[in-house]
Write a structure and sequence with these properties.
Layout (H helix, E strand, L loop, with lengths): L3 E4 L9 H12 L8 H8 L4 H11 L6 H19 L9 H8 L5 E4 L4 H11 L7 E3 L12 H13 L12 E5 L2 H9 L3 E5 L13 E3 L7 H4 L8
Parallel strand pairs: 1-2, 1-4, 2-3, 4-5, 5-6
Helix pairs in contact: 1-4, 3-4
């Protein structure tokens, strides 16, 4: 029985993954790294900024200290804000889905994005009030495909709405994700997953219980049927 929904942020709600790529690409160019879109999408997209930078530097055999890491990460954040230009583009159907789903289920958000980015966007779109829990990059240490962020979101949901004797179980949660790593993390957490092919082709998301092209096509009545079936 479905009792809660956990959504990703970038790639599901905010259509800004290309901006994150451009900002990280330009930030690491100082090391002589020519980061390609294919590299970013295939390996680094599910990571938060710190993990992404460290993984890129490791892959290119570049060692950086704490101070330089802070400088590069700050540069990436500045570039992202410049590219975003306070426009906050949402994916089609995202706002409608969130508002409708919140009438039936407690909603949480689990993302590798910084809390400031998440809350600014949700405030701008009038959506923050629909989420009982927001788990951001600052709240966990192991990013997707590790299940930590999803399990933490569930723990906090149970603090808000679950009872001590009858907490919401992982298998009673539906995760909505757009990335391969996100789908893997949801399944590792023991949760069902609805994948939206906003960032990856459908064939790369087959580990999800079901795949859709956009949240516009999702009817709430079908969500409780996703356990155990596959697209």
């Amino acid at each position: 029985m479905l009792k809660a929904i956990i959504l990703d942020f970038n790639g599901i709600i905010l259509d800004d993954e290309p901006l994150h790529f451009s900002a990280m690409r330009d930030a690491v160019a100082r090391f002589g790294i020519h980061l390609t879109r294919e590299e970013y999408w295939n390996k680094y997209l599910p990571m938060d900024d710190v993990q992404c930078l460290d993984a890129i530097c490791s892959d290119y055999s570049i060692r950086i200290g704490d101070q330089e890491r802070r400088i590069v990460l700050a540069r990436k954040v500045d570039l992202y804000r410049h590219f975003l230009q306070n426009l906050y583009p949402l994916f089609p159907g995202a706002a409608r889905f969130i508002k409708n789903a919140a009438q039936r289920y407690p909603l949480a958000l689990a993302s590798g994005a910084r809390r400031e980015e998440i809350e600014t966007t949700l405030d701008s779109a009038g959506l923050k009030r629909y989420f009982l829990v927001i788990v951001a990059a600052e709240d966990f240490t192991r990013g997707k495909p590790h299940p930590e962020s999803f399990l933490l979101a569930l723990k906090q949901l149970n603090t808000r709405v679950g009872s001590r004797l009858n907490p919401i179980k992982p298998e009673e949660c539906l995760v909505i994700e757009d990335s391969v790593g996100g789908v893997q993390g949801a399944r590792a957490a023991g949760m069902n997953c609805l994948a939206v092919s906003n960032s990856y082709p459908r064939e790369m998301l087959r580990a999800a219980n079901r795949i859709v092209d956009t949240l516009d096509e999702v009817q709430l009545d079908i969500l409780s049927t996703l356990s155990g079936d596959h697209a």
